Each structure stands twice: as structure tokens, then as C-alpha cells.
Amino acid sequence: RAQMNPHFLSNCLNSIQGFISKGEKMKAMRYLSEFNDLLRDTMELSQEPLVALDEDIKLLTSYLNLEKMRFNDKFSYGVHVDPSVNVYDSEVPPLLIQPFVENAIIHAFPAEVKQPRIDITFKQQSGQLTARIIDNGIGITKGVANKGEGYFQQRRSFGMDIPRKRLHLMGSKRETIRIQELKDEDGQVNGTEVVVHYGTAN
Q: Above 90 in pLDDT, residue 48?
């Protein structure tokens, strides 16, 4: 139920303090309001094993907006839902894909990445509700080269193991999560893709 890790909470509070110290009162108040809403909604939804996809998307969007403010709009994002997916009837574990989004924000976008972006798409595939998280960052290979093996292990353990265990506890028997680098026609890495299979979609 502890969906929001202490590191993120600490960063949020530090951001509020930073806005205040710079005299950016309105920005601090807006950030604090968003943070309060996110904290309240997270506590409420995390009590439930499943929530409507619509509610989960609202929570994820609130989180993304906070991170954009914290990082001075260094990245853009898009959340897309295939028309065939009923966001009110489809139920998902709350905040299941948030760790993948956080991984991209923290690890995928060093200064060399121009116009960083994250796109999250929900759609049905063979009767299964699927979420796809794509970033245009440096990819896993370069991250390992720059920061060592711990880079990939951090992304993998935090971003994959806990969500996978949650899905398996819900009875999923198939491989639920896949992560891969994206490459252009010349074989150059231009991002990372994470695909999460929730289960049956409505």
C-alpha cells in the first residue's frame, strides 16, 4: 500500500522549500496543492486491489504534472487511450506502471537528450489490456556504459520486480512485463519501451 516511496516524498518537500526560498510563492502554492491531491488520492486508491482505469490515469497524470514542475518542464508527456478501451469499466491495480514512468524521468534523460518525452498508451491486444510506456532517452545500453551495471539493476529491480509480483499475486500466469531498447533504421538506440499486460480488458 505504500505506493509513494520516501525518496519521492522527500524530493517533493525539497521542491516546495526551493520555491519558497526563491520567492516563488504562487508556484509553491500550486505545487503544494497538486502534491496534497496526489497524496490524498494515492492513500485512498491504494486501499483497493483494483480501481477503474480512469481513476488510475488521473493519478498518473497528477504525478507527471508534479514531476514536470519539479524538473522545470524538462520533459513532455502524453497519455493515450485506444477508443476500444472502456476506461470506466476496465479495472487495474492502482499505480502499477508509475515506477516505470519514474524510472524514465530519473534515468533516461541526461542533458544530452533533446526534447525528452514520455508516451503512455493503453490499448487492447488479443483481449488483454496493455500499457506501453515509451521514452526517447539514452536506453539501457548507454546507461550501463555511463553509470555501470548498477544502472540497469536499479531500473530493473525498482521498475519491474514489484509490479510483476503484484500481477502474479492477482493470478496472472503469463509474462506480464517486457522491457526493450528502441532502435532506428541505422541501429541507433533512441529510447526504451516497457510493455505491461494487465489482464482481460473491457
A: no
